[in-house]
Design a protein that fits this description.
Blueprint: E1 10-14, H1 20-29, H2 40-49, E2 56-61, E3 64-77, E4 80-88, H3 97-113, E5 118-122, H4 127-131, E6 136-146, E7 149-156
Parallel strand pairs: 4-5
Antiparallel strand pairs: 1-2, 2-3, 3-4, 5-7, 6-7
Helix pairs in contact: 1-2
């Protein structure tokens, strides 16, 4: 896959409890198409119980370091490595931020765990994005997250992909 220049360059750092409100704002901006309102409590529970493990990142633009525009992490679920709660603020979509978020998380996984299989539970609305990066569908459950938001489980294991080479 040929990488286009990013319209917005972002930097990442580890999530802290002080980021909670800003991260919830990013989440809320995506309710409707990407997340359901009823997922809010699950996300809050994740932030409070698991996000402080240094595997959840927040992203900000170089010119506005105090404004969080994306977040996401990784971790084990059922002995499998998963990308966890990745999202980009609605007003930062289509600028390369999601690509940078994905690459940073894959880089962290590779550095910590080597060429492990990586799973994600995402929706049909984002499935095409991940397919561009060699993720493939494992299963799909209609309305699995909420009405009109299917649960699509995908896997990545192509660590030889062109976009991965700079990070491996």
């Amino acid at each position: 896959m040929k990488m286009e220049p990013f319209k917005l360059m972002v930097k990442a750092r580890g999530y802290t409890i002080h980021d909670r409100a800003d991260v919830l704002t990013v989440f809320t901006s995506n309710i409707g198409l990407y997340f359901a309102q009823e997922e809010t409590e699950d996300f809050i529970e994740f932030l409070d119980a698991q996000a402080l493990d240094n595997r959840y990142l927040v992203f900000y633009s170089e010119d506005k370091p105090k404004q969080i525009i994306a977040c996401g992490g990784h971790g084990f679920i059922e002995d499998k490595m998963f990308l966890r709660w990745g999202m980009v603020a609605q007003d930062a979509h289509n600028q390369g931020t999601g690509t940078q978020l994905l690459i940073q998380r894959l880089k962290a996984i590779y550095q910590q765990h080597g060429a492990a299989d990586v799973y994600i539970d995402t929706s049909q609305h984002v499935q095409g994005f991940y397919e561009k990066f060699d993720f493939s569908v494992v299963s799909s459950i209609k309305d699995g997250f909420a009405p009109n938001i299917d649960r699509v489980r995908m896997i990545f294991n192509n660590w030889a992909a062109n976009f991965v080479k700079p990070i491996a």
